[in-house]
Design goal:
Helix content is 17%, strand content 36%. With 466 residues, it is of the alpha+beta class. The strands form six sheets. Strands 1, 2, 5, 6, 9, 17, 18, 21, 22 and 23 form a ten-stranded mixed beta sheet that branches. The protein has an eight-stranded mixed beta sheet with strand order 12-11-13-14-10-19-20-24, covered by helices on one side. 45% of the residues are buried.
């Protein structure tokens, strides 16, 4: 699928939506190719191509053969982004001209808290997110962290009180504003919700005010659940694009980047896709550029009227998207890169790379890494150590273990919303590395099966036919 004027008129979300829809409808993979304005891709008869011009060329190659143990997706794509004079071989599906090699500082995410990232900043559209937050940690006291305009915070307070929270207080994260609430009360809170904050005010408040310092300390507690709504989701990551709403800031080199709160230590987040068309270029370019510049492992794009939940569970860090819309997740898989820092060409905020992995994340989720405090022992297991057969299934199915995977395994069956339906443990013996499971009582639909030991885990999607 070819999309001209890609960064100026389309988005990575739209590209992946169309590619996935084609694959579901025709049962065959389709590759995506986007070309910016004032940019050309010249292809000779041998299938070798060269990029010319001022923008980028974007390849999304259907990559079911590409496996990342931490990303379990039905459809995933290898993402490449090339600039002027870079070359691409359509036969080999490989790029040349990218010389610098980059490895992320941290390959996997670690997390103690439970985080909720809301695609919308409107309180009424976050009711489901707040219900999930209350169910997750059952807080008695919730602190709302707001900017100069407390309108959204007041609406959220009424919504939380209506959902049964005993006490809800508002902190206006503005320099010079010191509430009567003592720092001890902030530290005693069970959950925090961020909405309507400006980065300069928020980070100055966290650094200079007594309650701000207490808030920063409270955010690090393992028991805490934190929700970031609308544009505030940017702050939860390691770094963020500060001014992505500026018109054509990417192509004119005016994008600026800031350090975030770092609750997600390897991730940067783009709030939503509900932007003016002239800002689409910043949405597409900002996150991969920042991932490469700061050696981050993940980039996450959200949509309006949905939310993402990131939590430690079963010894792993899980990310799932809820509300009927997927999130887009990009993983830095140690690309070769060009121009993440010193490039001063026509498009200074466009980075070239050759080996990102990108996919849509739904409620069945993805694994970003290990829970904080747990270390991965030994080399990663090869991806085919577990197979579900048959799949789709009607009455029963088998888990087939490969590569001497004996021992005791924990199994968890979830529905697509993440609700746990069954928990069990099973022994796998070397002489019979298989487990037979009953599916006769399950209704037709899609399920998520988690199989794990203390040092490794894998997620499989299960389709039940009735």
């Amino acid at each position: 699928m070819l999309v001209p004027h890609f960064s100026q008129r389309a988005s990575i979300k739209e590209m992946l939506t169309h590619l996935d829809a084609w694959q579901a409808r025709h049962q065959t993979a389709l590759n995506g190719l986007g070309i910016d304005s004032k940019t050309a891709l010249c292809i000779n008869k041998t299938g070798r191509a060269v990029v010319y011009g001022q923008g980028g060329v974007y390849f999304y190659l259907a990559s079911d053969h590409i496996y990342e143990e931490s990303l379990q997706f039905q459809h995933r794509y290898q993402a490449l982004q090339l600039l002027a004079q870079h070359k691409f071989d359509f036969g080999l599906k490989a790029a040349t001209g990218l010389e610098q090699s980059l490895a992320p500082a941290r390959q996997e995410e670690q997390l103690d808290q439970t985080l909720f990232l809301g695609g919308s900043g409107l309180p009424a559209q976050n009711r489901r997110l707040l219900q999930d937050l209350l169910q997750s940690c059952q807080p008695e006291t919730v602190g709302i962290v707001s900017g100069q305009d407390p309108g959204k915070a007041n609406a959220l307070r009424q919504l939380l009180l209506g959902l049964g929270v005993k006490e809800v207080f508002i902190l206006q994260a503005v320099s010079g504003f010191e509430p009567s609430l003592p720092a001890e009360s902030v530290l005693a809170s069970d959950a925090f919700v961020f909405v309507g904050n400006e980065p300069d005010d928020l980070f100055e408040y966290l650094q200079q005010q007594q309650t701000g310092q207490a808030l920063m300390e409270g955010l690090q507690q393992p028991r805490i659940a934190c929700a970031f709504l609308g544009e505030d989701v940017r702050y939860a990551g390691a770094a963020f694009v500060a001014n992505y709403r500026d018109k054509w800031a990417a192509s004119e080199g005016r994008l600026t980047f800031r350090k975030g709160l770092g609750l997600l230590k390897t991730t940067t987040i783009m709030p939503h896709f509900g932007l003016e068309k002239e800002c689409i270029e910043n949405v597409n370019a900002g996150l991969p550029f920042l991932m490469l510049r700061d050696s981050l492992a993940y980039g996450l794009w959200l949509q309006d009227s949905m939310y993402v939940k990131c939590r430690p569970q079963y010894g792993m860090v899980w990310l799932s998207a809820h509300g009927g819309r997927p999130a887009i997740l990009m993983k830095n898989t140690q690309s070769k890169i060009a121009y993440p820092l010193a490039y001063r060409g026509p498009s200074p905020n466009l980075a070239a790379f050759d080996n990102m992995l990108v996919a849509r994340v739904d409620s069945s989720g993805a694994i970003l890494g290990m829970q904080a405090g747990q270390e991965e022992s030994g080399p990663r297991q090869h991806h085919d150590w577990l197979m579900v057969y048959p799949n789709p299934v009607r009455n029963s199915f088998q888990l087939l273990f490969y590569g001497n995977q004996s021992g005791r395994y924990s199994l968890i069956l979830q529905d697509e919303e993440g609700n746990v339906l069954q928990k069990m443990t099973r022994l796998v013996f070397p002489q019979k590395p298989a487990i037979t499971l009953d599916a006769s009582t399950l209704s037709g639909g899609s399920y998520v099966l988690v199989v794990y030991q203390k040092d490794k885990g894998i997620v499989k999607k299960l389709k039940v036919l009735k």
